[in-house]
Structures are given as structure tokens and as C-alpha cells.
Amino acid sequence: MQKKQGRKLILNPELEKSLDELLKVLQENYDTPAQWKAFYHFVAIAYRSSKEQRPSVSKFADILQAAQIPRSGSLAALYAHGLYMLAVYNEIPIYKSFNP
Q1: What sections of the chain are H helices per DSSP?
Q2: Domain containing residue 79
């Protein structure tokens, strides 16, 4: 796998692009509507991706920390909650059959 900004590329190109856009927005502005829109977009694409093609919660935290994003742990927790909410909305049992 290639490396990008000190991280392995995610297998899903759409998710990789969304992550790049999210990191760019987070590095420019923090806690803005544009940042949250990019974050929600990333979570939605991550949810549609297979578990093997999306970062785990801890990997996502590592990516954010490597990019020196403030409150990376909190954003990683929100990432997990977002994935769980989408699973519940789609009537997929969480913790057993769906685990980010």
C-alpha cells in the first residue's frame, strides 16, 4: 500500500478522498459548519464502506492525531457514534453484527 501523510491509504478511494477533504477543513478551521459537513460526509461514506475499507475508531483517532487535529479523541468517539446511529437507523443490530 502507498503511504499518504504518514498513513496507509484506505482501500475505498471515495472514502480516502473524503478523509483528505475532512483533514484539510479541520486544519484550516475548527468547529465550523463546513467542518461538520465534511465530518458527516466522511462518516456516511465510512458507513457505506466495508469494515475492511474504513478506519477503525482507534485508527481514525491516530490519523487525526498525526494531522495534529485538536480534540482528536472526541472526534473519534463521534465517528463511532455516527456509525452506530446509521446502523440503528438501518435496523442493523449494533455491538454484535455491526461494530465499527
Answers
A1: 13-28, 33-48, 57-66, 72-89
A2: 13-89
